[in-house]
Amino acid sequence: MQSEISNDDRFTGKTFVITGTLPNLKRDEATRLIQMHGGKVSGSVSKKTSFVLAGEEAGSKLTKAKELGIKIINEEEFNNMLE
Q1: Could you give the C-alpha distances from 45 to 4, 14, 50, 57, 76, in angstroms and in order?
Q2: Rounded Cα distance, 66 and 9, in Å
Q3: Helices (DSSP H) in 1-83: which residue ranges?
Q4: Residue 18 pairs with which residues in a beta bridge?
Q5: Residue pLDDT, tens place only, 14-37
Q6: What per-residue confidence (pLDDT) applies to 1?
Q7: Are 52 and 62 in contact (CB under 8 A)?
Q8: What are phi and psi of 73, to 5 degrees?
Q9: Which whole-number Å values give the CA distances from 30 to 35, 49, 67, 68, 69, in the listed order?
């Protein structure tokens, strides 16, 4: 049986917040991908947030990320980070 643990730790020390509806990924799939690569997923935006993964109809989390100057990425950019 294949393990879900990856040796790829490109997101170690990074915290993501997922907001809105992503075009292709479900939220739990995006969370699993982030965690497999050593990252953390938070439910709220703070100055410790590294990236906000934003989809359609992103609301107050997107607004807060802009206020705090946090990098906002879409699903395509997220996929590029995984390549």
Answers
A1: 27, 13, 9, 16, 21
A2: 27
A3: 27-36, 60-68, 75-82
A4: 53
A5: 999 999 999 999 999 999 999 999
A6: 37
A7: yes
A8: -125, 155
A9: 9, 16, 24, 23, 22
Does the pLDDT at position 68 exceed 80?
yes
Q: Count the neighbouring beta carbons within 10 Å of the beta carbon of residue 56.
A: 10
pTM attached to this predicted model: 0.90
Instruction: Provide the β-strand partners of residue 21.
Output: 56
* The amino acid at 55: G
HSE of 70 in the Cβ direction (CA atoms, 13 Å)? 25
Give the single-character DSSP code of 10: T
